[in-house]
C-alpha cells in the first residue's frame, strides 16, 4: 500500500551537508525520507567552502566524526559520481616554530614531515624562506559546487523526496509544519546551521549560537605545476584542533600575532585549494556577529592576494570571484540537541561541516533513533 506524500519516516530540515548526511543515513536503512529546504538547492556553507576535507587536522570529538565522514565521502563519490581525490593536505612551514608544531602532531601518526625540496616538488612555492613542511595523509579534496548537487541527485534517485522552495514554520513530536502543508513523521532532524535561531531560538540561545562570516575568493593562476593537495600555512596550524592546543602552537600564535597584527585582526586562515579547472580558492577571514553585515572590506582581499604572491612562485593571481561565507559558531565544536522526543538538532559550529558533517549525522542519528550501526561508520 502506498504511503501518502505527506507522511515520512524521517523529515530532514535543511539540505546542507549535515542534512544530506542525515538523509543518506536514513535512506540507506530503507526509510522514507523527505528533505525540506526554503532554497531551491544547497546554497550555504556547503558550497561556499574550500572543498578541503581536513580529516587529519582534527582533534577530540571532531576527529571521530571526521574519520567516519571520510568513509562516507569515498562511498558517496563513487555512487553519486562526483570528483574527489585522496590528496592528503600539504602544510608549508616558513619558520622553525611551525616545524615544531608539525613535529609534535606527527608523533600521533598520519602526518609525514617533508623537507623543503619535497615541498617544492609538491607545490609551486617560493624557495626563499621555506624551511620544510608536512603531508597530512588522510585528507580528501572535492569541488563543493559540484559535490552537493551530485549528492542531491543521487539521493533523489534512491527515493529521498526533496521539497525545495518550502519553508518550515514549526517542528514538534511527529510533525513538521511547512509553507506547503504539514508532514507527519516518526523522526525529525533539524540541520539548518546558522539559521537555527530563526526556527528554534531557544536552542540557539542555549548553545550560544552566532554567525561567523568569512571572505573568500577564486582566482586564475599560472603555476609552473599544480598544487598536488590543499595547502595550509602556519596561520592554519593555530586554528585546527590537532595542532592548536599545545605549547608549540602557543608560541607560534604569539609570533604570528606580534609580527602581523594586520592579519591577526582578520582572524586569518591562510589556505589554498586548486580546483580541477586550475583555478585557486584563496582565503579566508573570520568575523563573528549575531547578524554579520553583508559588506566585505577590500582590505581582507588585498591581504589574501599579497600573501599569495609572497608564498607562490608565480605571477599575481587574477581574481575571478569573491564571496561571503557564513556558518554557525558556538562555544563547542558541534551543536547536538534533543529538542523533543524524535526531534534531533545538529550543526557543526566551528566551520568544519564539510569535514565532519556526514559522520556527525550518521553517528548521532544512529544513537538518537536507536538504529543499528552500518559498516564503516562506527
Distance between the termini: 34 Å
Mean pLDDT over the residues: 95
Number of domains: 2
**Uncertain regions spanning at least 5 consecutive residues:** none
Helix fraction? 25-40%
CATH architecture of the largest domain: 3-Layer(bba) Sandwich
Structure summary, number of beta strands: 19
Corresponding CATH superfamily of the largest domain: FAD/NAD(P)-binding domain
Per DSSP, the total helix count is: 13
Portion of residues in beta strands equals: 25-35%
The largest sheet, given as strand count, sense and whether it forms a barrel, is: 12 strands, mixed
What's the CATH first level of the largest domain? Alpha Beta
Please provide a written account of the structure:
This protein has 378 residues and is α+β, with helices and mostly antiparallel strands. It folds into two domains: 7-78 and 143-207 and 333-369, FAD/NAD(P)-binding domain (3-Layer(bba) Sandwich); 89-138 and 210-328, D-Amino Acid Oxidase, Chain A, domain 2 (2-Layer Sandwich). It is 34% helix and 29% strand. The protein has 13 helices and 19 strands. It has helices spanning 17-27, 60-80, 96-106, 116-122, 144-157, 196-199, 201-206, 234-237, 241-244, 247-259, 261-264, 298-311, 353-369, and strands at 7-13, 33-36, 52-53, 84-85, 89-93, 111-114, 132-136, 140-142, 161-163, 168-172, 175-178, 181-190, 210-220, 231-232, 271-274, 280-283, 287-289, 318-340, 343-350. Strands 1, 2, 9, 10, 11, 12, 13, 15, 16, 17, 18 and 19 form a twelve-stranded mixed sheet that branches. A four-stranded mixed sheet has the order 6-7-5-14. Helix 1 (17-27) crosses helix 13 and helix 2 crosses helix 13. The protein is globular and about 65 Å long. It starts with 6 loop residues before the first strand and ends in a 9-residue tail after the last helix. The model has no long low-confidence stretch (mean pLDDT 95).
Amino acid at each position: 500500500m502506498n504511503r501518502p506524500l505527506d507522511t515520512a519516516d524521517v523529515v530532514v530540515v535543511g539540505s546542507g551537508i549535515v542534512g544530506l548526511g542525515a538523509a543518506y543515513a536514513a535512506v540507506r536503512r530503507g526509510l522514507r525520507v523527505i528533505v525540506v529546504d526554503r532554497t531551491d538547492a544547497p546554497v550555504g556553507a556547503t558550497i561556499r567552502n574550500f572543498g578541503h576535507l581536513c580529516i587529519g587536522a582534527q582533534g577530540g570529538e571532531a576527529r571521530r566524526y571526521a574519520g567516519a565522514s571520510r568513509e562516507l565521502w569515498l562511498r558517496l563519490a563513487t555512487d553519486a559520481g562526483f570528483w574527489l581525490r585522496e590528496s592528503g593536505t600539504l602544510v608549508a612551514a616558513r619558520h622553525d616554530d611551525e616545524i615544531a608544531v608539525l613535529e609534535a602532531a606527527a608523533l600521533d601518526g598520519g602526518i609525514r614531515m617533508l623537507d623543503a625540496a619535497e615541498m617544492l616538488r609538491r607545490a609551486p612555492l617560493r624557495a626563499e624562506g621555506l624551511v620544510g613542511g608536512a603531508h597530512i595523509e588522510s585528507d580528501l579534496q572535492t569541488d563543493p559546487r559540484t559535490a552537493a548537487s551530485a549528492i542531491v541527485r543521487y539521493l533523489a534517485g534512491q527515493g529521498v523526496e526533496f521539497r525545495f522552495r518550502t519553508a518550515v514554520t514549526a517542528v514538534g513530536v511527529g510533525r513538521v509544519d511547512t509553507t506547503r502543508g504539514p508532514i507527519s513523521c516518526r523522526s525529525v532532524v533539524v540541520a539548518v546551521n546558522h539559521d537555527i535561531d530563526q526556527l528554534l531560538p531557544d536552542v540557539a540561545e542555549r548553545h550560544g549560537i552566532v554567525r561567523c562570516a568569512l571572505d573568500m575568493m577564486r582566482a586564475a593562476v599560472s603555476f609552473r605545476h599544480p598544487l598536488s593537495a590543499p595547502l595550509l600555512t602556519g596561520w592554519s596550524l593555530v586554528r585546527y584542533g590537532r595542532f592548536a592546543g599545545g605549547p608549540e602552537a602557543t608560541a607560534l600564535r604569539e609570533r604570528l600575532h606580534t609580527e602581523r597584527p594586520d592579519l591577526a585582526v582578520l582572524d586569518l586562515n591562510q589556505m589554498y585549494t586548486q580546483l580541477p579547472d586550475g583555478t585557486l580558492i584563496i582565503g579566508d577571514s573570520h568575523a563573528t556577529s549575531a547578524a554579520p553585515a553583508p559588506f566585505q572590506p577590500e582590505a581582507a582581499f588585498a591581504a589574501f592576494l599579497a600573501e599569495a604572491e609572497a608564498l607562490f612562485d608565480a605571477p599575481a593571481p587574477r581574481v575571478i570571484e569573491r564571496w561571503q561565507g557564513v556558518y554557525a559558531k558556538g562555544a563547542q565544536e558541534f551543536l547536538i540537541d534533543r529538542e523533543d522526543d524524535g526531534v534531533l538538532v545538529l550543526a557543526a559550529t566551528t566551520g568544519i561541516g564539510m569535514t565532519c558533517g556526514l559522520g556527525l549525522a550518521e553517528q548521532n542519528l544512529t544513537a538518537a533513533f536507536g538504529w543499528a550501526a552500518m559498516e564503516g561508520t562506527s
